[in-house]
Amino acid sequence: LRYIGDFAFASETALVAINIPNGEIGRCSFMGCSKLKDVKLGNVTEIGESAFLDCTSLCEITIPESVLEIRSEAFAGCSNLKVVRVTNRQTIIANNAFDSNTLIKYKN
Prior knowledge:
The protein has 108 residues and is mostly beta strands. 0% of the residues lie in helices and 34% in strands.
């Protein structure tokens, strides 16, 4: 897997879990997947703009060390996303990638 295309699974309400082994996640790829609550990321390098916008069932996520950039509004509107674990302190995170009530924890 190299790239999940823009809008690939947008508004797919039956989607509850995904496991992305590697590659890049394109713009709005999972936008509006309101039942998505389990996201596992392998060797992913980039999370595109609005990739998980309005995924309201998502509560927590771990961003692997391989992620170099999280783009604008990647997790905006994820109203239940309270904890994000980032494993690489060098990951570039856009100012508005997450809602203001989301706690970002850096772990070694």
